[in-house]
Design brief:
Layout lengths: L9 E3 L1 H5 L6 E13 L2 H17 L4 H7 L9 E13 L3 E5 L6 H8 L7 E7 L2 E4 L12 H11 L4 H15 L14 H14 L4 E4 L8 H14 L4 E5 L3 H7 L2 E6 L2 E7 H10 L7 H12 L1 E9 L2 E2 L3 E11 L3 E11 L5 E13 L5 E10 L4 E11 L4 E14 L13 E4 L1
Parallel strand pairs: 1-5, 4-8, 4-9, 6-7, 7-8, 12-18
Antiparallel strand pairs: 2-3, 2-5, 9-10, 11-13, 13-16, 14-15, 14-17, 16-19, 17-18
Helix pairs in contact: 5-6, 6-7
The structure holds adenosine-5'-triphosphate.
Protein name: ABC transporter ATP-binding protein
Family: Belongs to the ABC transporter superfamily.
InterPro entries: AAA+_ATPase, ABC_transporter-like_ATP-bd, ABC_transporter-like_CS, ABC_transpr_TagH-like, Bact_Polysacc_Export_ATP-bd, P-loop_NTPase
Length: 422
């Protein structure tokens, strides 16, 4: 669940921060780098060597190596983040995008002060609210009520200030009935709801949100998106998500990470489409280890058919052929619709249990019901996830194109119902 901590990085007090102008820089990151070691035994040994180095010399071995160059890394070590630079101002929302293992959470953890950078500098101004890992930040034995007070105090709020916010937090998190039960009895969705409610209600200057919001249901996600937009008036947000439609919706800028390094940063409308369309072979061999199964199990994803023209309220039919080298279970499909400028305008979510047998052609037949989009041509992207949406089984961008003939106005966050049959 949430981790709500003051940043260990260079932090100014929130009162100091609030005296700055609206466009003030709240986060400044310069040449940031973090080295990890994949081999557990070696990492213990290196840790010991570095501590000894810190004790007996001004600069530890690890820092010296980190500041030299990549080939000086010790066996087993790699850069989880390298050469990261950015600034974030009040009122801005920065999206961190990248495949599994790209280094997004590592960067968030450094911003939140949970781990220390090996090189570079982080400057944070004001109060930091964060929702990073499920189960962290709460004492599982304490009740929801007690955890609200503990987290509020950690953020520097007085009891009276927390009292004032208490009802809003409980109402937003929808945990009124369980507020006096230990947090360890909460479902993961309840923990995330409470964590988010605390982090956002404490009026942070910087709000750090990891993919964890994905644990909540769609309704709660939509509520969070509205809350984040409200918060943005007074704070800066760093938002990690694999759900591109959410990034598209709330982030002004994105930082695209691969193998710990920035591939590109800039306005969401310019960087996100490039990320979505990028071939997925740009990851390092380091990360291929983690992604091999999900990337390599698909032999073919092909369009079989798609309705070419749709009147408002019609069903859209889409059929895709898929062939995998190993058996794979798909739990969630997303069907996303992009207009002719590439902007995401709607998406359907299908929760299911579809088994793709190895080396067998499987036809996936989707039906998006009662589709209502404004007149124009649209691209359809399909995404398939397994393992609680942790693994991307396949991503089929620009799978099909169709024409919408109606003249109706567009809707915000439109999510038409859809079904799948095999
Ligand atoms: N404490 C650690 N020790 C060693 N390696 C680590 C540690 N924490 C993370 N890593 C590795 O660092 C790399 C970056 O991990 P990180 O969690 O930052 O990626 P991510 O982009 O957040 O991935 P995901 O999208 O799957 O959450 C991965 O290869 C991961 O296995």
């Amino acid at each position: 669940m949430s981790e709500i901590l003051e940043s260990n990085a260079v932090a100014a007090s929130s009162s100091e921060a609030s005296t700055h102008s609206d466009s003030e820089v709240l986060v400044r990151v310069e040449n940031l780098g973090k080295v990890f070691c994949r081999d557990f035994k070696k990492s213990l040994l290196y840790g010991l060597q570095d501590s000894m180095g810190d004790l007996f010399s001004a600069k530890s071995d690890k820092k010296q190596r980190a500041q030299d160059s990549e080939h000086k890394l010790r066996p087993g070590e790699f850069w989880a983040n390298k050469d990261i630079n950015f600034e974030l101002r009040r009122g801005e929302c920065l999206g961190l995008i990248g495949q599994n293992g790209a280094g997004k959470t590592t960067l968030l953890k450094m911003l939140n002060g949970l781990i220390k950078p090996d090189v570079g500098k982080i400057e944070m101004r004001g109060r930091v609210g964060a929702l990073i890992a499920l189960g962290a930040g709460f004492n599982p034995l304490l009740s929801g009520r007690e955890n609200i007070y503990v987290n509020g105090s950690v953020l520097g709020l007085t009891k009276i200030e927390i009292d004032e916010k208490f009802d809003d937090i409980v109402e937003f998190a929808e945990v009124r009935k369980s507020i006096d039960s230990p947090v360890q009895t909460y479902s993961s969705g309840m923990q995330v709801r409470l964590g988010f409610a605390i982090a956002s209600s404490m009026k942070p200057d910087v709000l750090i949100l990891d993919e964890i919001l994905a644990v909540g249901d769609m309704e709660f996600q939509a509520k969070c998106m509205i809350e984040i937009s409200k918060n943005l008036a007074s704070c800066a947000v760093v938002f990690v998500s694999h759900q591109e439609h959410l990034v598209q919706r709330i982030c002004d800028r994105v930082l695209w990470l691969e193998a710990g390094k920035i591939v590109e940063s800039g306005p969401t409308f310019s960087v996100l489409p490039k990320y979505i369309d990028a071939p997925r072979n740009r990851i390092s061999s380091e990360q291929k280890e983690t992604n091999l199964e999900k990337l390599d199990c698909i032999n073919i994803v092909e369009l079989v058919s798609c309705t070419l023209e749709v009147e408002s309220g019609d069903n859209l039919k889409l059929e895709i052929l898929i062939n995998a080298s190993s058996r794979v279970a798909i739990e969630t499909f997303y069907i996303a619709f992009r207009d002719n400028t590439g902007k995401f305008v709607a998406r359907s979510t299908i929760s299911c249990e579809v088994i793709i047998e190895a080396d067998t052609n499987t036809n996936l037949k989707f039906q998006v019901k009662d589709l209502r989009l404004k007149r124009g041509s649209y691209m359809v992207d399909t995404y398939a996830y397994s393992n609680g949406e942790k693994s991307l089984v396949f991503q089929f961008n620009s799978a099909a194109k169709f024409l919408m003939r109606s003249m109706i106005a567009s809707q915000v966050d439109y999510q038409p119902d859809a079904v799948i049959s095999v």
